[in-house]
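Before relying on records like the one below, remember that each one covers exactly one chain. Contacts with other chains, cofactors or solvent are not represented anywhere in the record.
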Amino acid sequence: MAGDAERRWAEQLAAWAIPDEIRSQAVADPWKLTPRLVPVPARDEAPGDTPTRRAALAALGDGGTVLDVGAGSGAASLPLVPPATDVTAVDEGDDMLEAFTARAAEIGVAHRVYPGRWPDVGADVPVADLVVSNHVLYNVPDLAGFVVGLTSHARRRVVVEITGRHPVSGTNPLWKHFWNLDRPDGPTADDAIAVLEEAGIRPETARELRPGFRGVPHGERAAFLTRRLCLPPEREPEVEEALARLPEPPEREYVTLSWDGTAK
C-alpha cells in the first residue's frame, strides 16, 4: 500500500498528462525519446566529472559489474568502462537497446539486454555490483517498488541521477504560448527523496548545476519539442522562433542519490 509521500508523488506525475483534445492532434508519440536525444559520449570524449559519476566509480573501485535500469543508449553505464567489466541494460525501447548494444560492442565490454519495464522484469535480471538509473524516476508513479527493486539487485551501491525539478517544467512557457495551457511544476527531487525515506532508504545526496541540454543539437531540440507539444512537423519553425523568445533555462540542477544495495 502506497504511503502519503508516494501518493503525492503519483498525483503530481499524473497532472502532467496531456489533455485528450491536445494529445489527439499529435502525429507521433509526444513522450518518446530517441537515442540521439540521450547520447553516449563519443569513444574519444572524456566523460564529465559529475557527482553521479564519482559515486559510481567509488562503488566500482578496481572493477565490477553494472546494471543500468532505464538504460537508454547507455549514457549512465557505458562511460564507466573501465573499471566496469560487464554491463546489463534494461529498457522498454527496442531502439534504445539497439543503440546500447552497438556502443557496448564498439567499446568491447561484455553486455546483455533485457527489454521491458522495471521492476516487472526484475526477476529475470541478474544482480550486479552497482545499479545505476539516470533520469528515469520522473517516469515512475509507483516509485517505492521501483527503488526497492534497484536496491535488491545491487551488491554494493545504487546510484541514481535526476533533475531537481520535473524535466519538462522548463517547457511550460511553450505550452502556454501554443495551447494556453498551464502546466504543473512538481514533483521535485525532494519529493522523490521523501518517497525513498518512506520506503526505508536514506540516500546520500549531492546537487550540482550543469548545462541543461549538453550534446543535443539545437535543430534536433526544436524538432523534439514540436513533437512533444503535439504540433505537426511543419510548425517546427514556429517552435524555433518561440524558443528564441522563451528559452528554457540554460542550467539545471542535477541531483545524485546513492545508497547501499542488499543483494548477496
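The chain has one domain: 4-20+31-168+185-215+249-260.
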